[in-house]
Amino acid sequence: MPTNQLMPKLFACRQSIILAENIAKEYNTTLGKVKTTHFSDGEFQPAFQESVRGRRVFIIGSTFPNADNLMEMLLMLDAAKRASARHITAVMPYFGWARQDRKDQPRVAIGAKLVANLLQSAGATRIVTMDLHADQIQGFFEKPVDHLYASTIFMPYIKSLKLDNLTIASPDMGGSKRAYAYSKHLHSDVVICYKQRKKANEISSMELIGDVEGKNVILVDDMIDTGGTLAHAANLMMERGALSVRAICTHPILSGDAYEKIENSGLTELIVSDTIPLRKETSKIKVVSCAPLFADVMGKVQDNTSISGQFLM
Which one is catalytic: 9, 195, 215, 261? Predict the structure, then answer.
């Protein structure tokens, strides 16, 4: 719990209200009051119902699509800035639009850089987020970024499973660094899936680099969107003789028929955090809360103390 005399104020964007309430509870405080006015054309206007003058303000909200979630964060940042808040921290457990971190084809936007510019222009003086899709997004900001790793909350759960012959897997080449980081702490082997896509969200082929026969496999990734990659990887590993396949994904986007793909796949379990609220509960999905991690880091930010102890990767 922070020790500074002036307690910070915590506010929530509507899409993350449950997570924000849990963070506030861990922080031993309550959320500030916000009133949102709606117009008939879909426009909305959030307004703080209490003074934030001279205070540190934490605004909590994941910016997963649709774009209203990002817009709400921007409006609340701007409102805090114009209400003379001293420090304004955007707490974004899931940083949306992060897959657009580079020009991977001609005549496209770099969406992650655009969002970074918007957040800073709106008034954010600090960003706290977790498991960015690409680490280099931190460099898009001119303000401090606290980039947390979900391994902090997932590692105790993995160890509690007490799995023999554990192997960590990456569902693609891009996630190999994350897989090696987990394997280092767990002293396990690593396998990597090599996939090719016809287009976004559609796999044309997948091959396995490494041996999974007789192994309990845990796939690790930063997000799960349509679920196609993980379902395909799990089925392939079971065909190659794996004893079980689990997956750890920080951000459960789970769009389209992802829930059905997970239920019908060879996955024993999908472990996710609560950065994005689930649309429905299923027997295969286990949620591990990130609220204690964010509350602890926010307290350290308020007290100007080191957060390096929270980094496992």
Answer: 195
